[in-house]
Each structure stands twice: as C-alpha cells, then as structure tokens.
C-alpha cells in the first residue's frame, strides 16, 4: 500500500501520509493511482504519436545528433588511435 501511495503522491504532488487518509479501501487507492499515472503519461503518449506520424523528422533529428556526436568525439578518437599507434601523431 505504501508503494501505491508513493506513486500517487509523485503523480499528484501530494504527500503519502495525507493521501493515505483519503482512501478507505485498497481498490479505491489502486484505481486512483492508475488514473494518476495515466494522467501523467497522456502528454508523453500524445508526443509519441506526433513523432510516429512524422518519421522523417525523427530520422533528421537522429542524423543531426549523430553528426554532432561524431564531430565532438573525432578529436578524442584520433588521439586514442595515435596513442596506440593506429594513426600517425598529429
């Protein structure tokens, strides 16, 4: 029961000890917790649906991120290769 109260408190910005006094049955607590979790997830589900509807946008973001990561990592990778003798020193 404490776990459900913690989850409910996290989802509603409430305090577990205060919320505990609002429920007289485990079933009611479970239902309220489930609804609170669903409410927190709704915006995430909506954003996920938006992204799934535009796969080219997601591919572009991933491509741009990979390019940026390669640019940031390349100097360090070249140093490592040079240190083990796989590239001539710079």
From TrEMBL:
InterPro entries: Trp-tRNA_synthetase. One of its GO terms (biological process) is tryptophanyl-tRNA aminoacylation. GO terms for molecular function: tryptophan-tRNA ligase activity. GO terms for cellular component: cytosol. This is Tryptophan--tRNA ligase. It comes from Streptomyces violaceusniger.
